[in-house]
Amino acid sequence: MASAVTMAVSAPTSSMRVLPSFDGLRAQQLPTSVKAVAAPLEKSGSLLIVADKKVQKRRQIVLTEDIPALGKVGELLSVKTGYFRNYLYPTGKAKIATAELLKSIKLEADRVAAEKRKVKEEAENIARQFQAVGFFNVRRRGGQGKQIFGSVTAQDVVDIIRAQTGRDVDKRVVTVPEIREVGQYTVEVKLHPEVIAPVKINVIAK
Predict the structure, then answer these.
(1) Which of 54, 97, 152, 186 has the most crowded CB, counting CB atoms within 10 A?
(2) What does the mean pLDDT of the chain come to?
(3) Which CATH superfamily is domain 58-97 in?
(4) Phi, psi of 49 (to 5 degrees)
């Protein structure tokens, strides 16, 4: 609710005119609590003015570090001017979003996006290379029937991929089903958050 600040203005004379509005002020319907003040003024021909509550200004800023519950570094935000002036700016956590700064942020964002595309494309190329190999042969000492001694592990898959393609793969991104018999299997190699390569292996008894 607007703050009830009263101001008595003398009734206009023939040489004066009343403007319909004032800068930052406006005449309005008075609440009951103000009527007692307004009554004497109305009788005297004065005009009661009520000031609008001051609008809180905001500032466009760019964060220079991650702030919990607010945003991440490089993010463009609109915050209260007082919050920026009293906290974000003095602590070096944000800068005013100037045209030059916004241009710099866009260039960096474009560079990062291009680098991410490059990494993903490389992962896709490796996945196609694995697919072109067909089956990777893994040899294990045979047991009775189709059984093999031990099992095929992620490290076994990493070793055979390196031997046949020259590619080094982290065994932590290799998912191997339980393999205790000769036969053909498919393991998964997570080359990228969005690229999972199915790798076919052929377990052979020796």
Answers:
(1) 152
(2) 81
(3) Ribosomal protein L9, N-terminal domain (3.40.5.10)
(4) -115, 135
Cα–Cα distance between 108 and 64 in angstroms, integer?
A: 14
Are the beta carbons of 63 and 97 closer than 8 angstroms? no
Instruction: Please give the CATH architecture assigned to the domain spanning 118-205.
Output: Roll (3.10)
Residues of the chain with pLDDT under 70: 1-56
Q: How many CA atoms lie within 13 A of 153 on its CB side?
A: 8
Q: Which two tokens stand for residue 31?
A: 């609440």
The two structure tokens encoding residue 81: 């001017």
Tokens matching residue 110: 């474009």
What digits encode the pLDDT tens for the residues 81-122?
999 999 999 999 999 999 999 898 899 889 999 999 999 999
